[in-house]
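Exercise: predict the structure of this protein bound to 6-O-phosphono-alpha-D-glucopyranose.
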Amino acid sequence: MCGIFAYIGKNNRAGDIAFNGLRRLEYRGYDSWGIAVLTKKGLVIKKKRGKISEAAPVLPASNTSVAHTRWATHGKVSDKNAHPLFSSQKDFCLVHNGIVENFAELKKNLVKTYKFSTQTDTEVIVKLIEEEQKKKQPSSEAIRKAFIKLQGRNTIIVLCNNGDLFAVRNGSPLVIGFNLKTKELFFSSDALSFAQLATQMHVVRNGQMASYFQQSGTLEFYDLVTKAKIPLAWEKMDFVSAEVSHQGFGHYMIKEINESPWVIRQLLKTKRSDFYKLTRQIRLAKNVYTIGAGTAGVAAAQIGFYLRKYAHRNTISLVAADADEYLPLMTKRDLVICPSQSGETADLLEFLEKAKKTGIKIVSLVNMPGSTLTRISNFRFMNQAGPEIAVMSTKVFTSQIAWGYLLAKTVQKQFFQGKKNLRKTADLLEKMLQDKRWLRKIKRIADLLSLKKSIFLLGKSENLQIVKEGMIKMIEGSYIHAQAIPAGDLKHYAITLMEKNTPVVCVIPANYLQSDVLNSVNEIKTRGALVIAITPVKHEAFDEYIKLPVVEETTAILNVLPLQLLAYYLALSLGHNVDKPRNIAKSVTVK
Ligand code: G6P
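Solution:
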């Protein structure tokens, strides 16, 4: 995936606006960046390997720009492979988000006529457009016809040297922004990138194309195949907060971890009636599924846990990239609950496109306004957690599982008790985050872990998904191998890996004396492992002890905090880029 951006305005600010837009889109990929501006002498492109946040491009004055931040799929990370890509005549340039799945096949024909100068699949689109241009048709038609030949989830923006701009979506996200007062136009992968500049937005759907003609200043919008005109459906920009800054924290990740109590308090604004239709549907449903990708997949599994535990629903939790086998089992009497920060994750959307045909009802919990997932859902919920910028998701995960808990308590007819428990949880999280000694201890333990080759995590019941999330965070933050194991299952295989000083992070409930997590702790201790316990009560078997307060039903929501902090301090200790771990991106809009 990548981030794409375009701007049409005035006052010669196009370069700066594209630069700032790209900085906000950087979470989508940060291998390289590129900005093209239109000048009197034609299109000027600056592009480079590396992060936009570390660049200070000097661009000529311009009112029109197009920009890209890349997460490489085809073609190594290099200045050359960075977007925008010029056409052979430099009469247009193009940015692309997606994968052209049939690029090898298309290229086979095109190489007979054209010389390729990059290794990207994107260059195939450029050459296809050039091929169509030969047929002496308007640029909009050349682009439309070329785009139709692409397979896969792709979105492009093309800027021509006469100032006309074309954007086509089929898969990867595309939002158009407009400022009613200044008449500035924005095209972007997300609305957050222009949230403070536009007054309204329009979410482009798959199979749609927008054409802006500079001379007339008109924006046309139509169906890609039938060419039927579509009216723009402007929506008000609806952001809890569009502010994107560290606010003095140094890193987005730690700022966002510190917002955990706030995101739970945001959820406390929920009224029982907001859940009315959904709880009814959950009670009526034959099967309830929860599904997500990456961290959101773990959140989905934890929501599943709460629905089994408190709502007594036999919930099945799936990972989006590997759920197809359930498709033949799904019916219109079923319900699928989908947490997703962005609402644009390709694995999830592709699965849901297929699942929707079974008539299954889709419930979404999304943090980013204007997403595809929200639009295709029968029941829509927003996290209201504010922008999450760090690639390692923290506050949104906390918000997602807290929402799942409250939902399950509502089905159990204990909405107000659920809220009360969450209010207490938010207060406790706040106290933990203010406890300097506690934080110093976690930092010291992270320093210790940073020297290890492998980290194990043990959990059970409500903490099993939580240690899985801890595993994901530690892998992302440290690049050290980590593995989460159900505590009781350890003796069946992973115990063979336990030797002197093998680090094992154990998340243990308050009543651990009755818990077989303690049996596992004793078994690994006997083999010399270094036991790091996250639990309310101390025990002689622990080498390191991270104290947690006692709560009844929301321990999992508390327990994830020290794990997120361990990952943060690990990244710091190892000198990694905390907010942008290598090779991954926050929003994965390709398969
Ligand atoms: C990527 C991110 C994860 C995220 C997942 C799903 O893998 O690195 O943090 O959980 O995508 O994204 P979504 O936007 O659907 O939550």
